């Protein structure tokens, strides 16, 4: 698929440094055909971003449908996010590195989709505070801490490597969940 | 300074897409003078990486000299790391995005320095496990969780923004420290 192959090319050489000719070779298409399918290089970049956001939002929707406590929801969100990072290393690399190359409407749409996902995480955190499961916390900052912990695995969590996504998701969830749990009275000095 | 100005140029346009001519203009130097000072574009990239690693290791050394419990050490490491990210946004952007462009000896040196810092964090975690302050944990995975949480702030923690590095370091330390603390018997089911 053009999007997947191009994600690989961009991840290796960088978006700006990759020419249309290179994309044609990688996709085994002539210039005319490539432009017919993708419109422009930036549209291709936007499609890669959408691909990542689609997967991430599908995961978030699955989690919401499954229900459960805020702790369970947060753990499942972590599983789903690490699955995407693990399965789409090139797309995620391009997503995290090349988003400043999106312009105008495409940049605005990307920010909006990204923000939408962050709000899902924030809502789960807030729900946990409301039920008393989580201690009083800043949902926005805590979301950024959680996202950083998970997203940053794109640098070292390799498909086919020693660790599976679950091997990482479980201890990460344990750190995070204990970190935001409402302290028992004994902890609470 | 050439390194700082070039970090800005690379952060904006990407390393591969930035030509020597652009670097000359930004630094207000002729080609001959630029090559005299920097040797090659890749040497400049290595110098930016070194700049970040120097600051990060200076911080880690300050923390080691100050002493304190493993919890205090880890909190101070977080303060120092966020200070670097907050003070050197362009350098850190280039550091995290363009390291694959380093080759040969320079790539090996970069990996070694990065690993050296990670080992500092791992050692503090292991010390906390040994003293019983931290629960049994995988020091390597826990280091990567900690690093991710802190490093990822480069995407949103802005110099001159609403939040200072300390505003972020404090709640992050609280999440992480509670997350790895040895549970009190009441928690320990």
- In the CATH scheme, the class of chain A would be Mainly Alpha
Q: Largest contact between protein chains?
A: A-B, 39 and 39 residues
Oligomer: homodimer
- Backbone CA Rg of chain A: 19 Å
The low-confidence runs of chain A, each spanning 5 or more residues with pLDDT under 50, are none
Work out the strand percent of chain A.
under 5%
Architecture (CATH level 2) name of chain A: Orthogonal Bundle
The gross shape of chain A turns out to be elongated
Count of individual domains of chain A: 1
What fold name goes in the CATH topology slot of chain A? Tetracycline Repressor, domain 2
Helix content of chain A: over 70%
Number of helices of chain A: 9
What profile does the largest beta sheet of chain A have?
none
**CATH homologous superfamily label of chain A:** Tetracycline Repressor, domain 2
Gap between N and C termini of chain A: 57 Å
Q: Quick check: average pLDDT of chain A?
A: 93
């Amino acid at each position: 698929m053009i999007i997947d192959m191009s994600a690989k090319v961009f991840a290796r050489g960088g978006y700006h440094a990759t020419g249309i000719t290179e994309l044609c070779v990688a996709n085994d298409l002539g210039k005319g055909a490539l432009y017919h399918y993708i419109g422009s290089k930036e549209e291709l970049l936007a499609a890669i971003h959408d691909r990542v956001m689609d997967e991430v939002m599908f995961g978030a929707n699955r989690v919401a449908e499954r229900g459960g406590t805020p702790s369970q929801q947060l753990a499942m969100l972590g599983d789903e996010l690490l699955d995407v990072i693990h399965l789409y290393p090139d797309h995620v690399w391009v997503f995290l590195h090349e988003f400043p190359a999106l312009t105008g409407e495409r940049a605005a749409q990307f920010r909006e989709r990204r923000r939408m996902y962050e709000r899902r995480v924030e809502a789960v955190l807030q729900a946990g505070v409301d039920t008393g499961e989580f201690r009083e916390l800043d949902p926005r900052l805590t979301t950024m801490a959680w996202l950083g912990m998970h997203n940053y695995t794109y640098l070292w969590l390799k498909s086919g490597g020693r660790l599976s996504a679950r091997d990482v998701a479980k201890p990460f969830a344990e750190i995070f969940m204990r970190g935001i749990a409402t302290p028992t009275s004994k902890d609470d000095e």
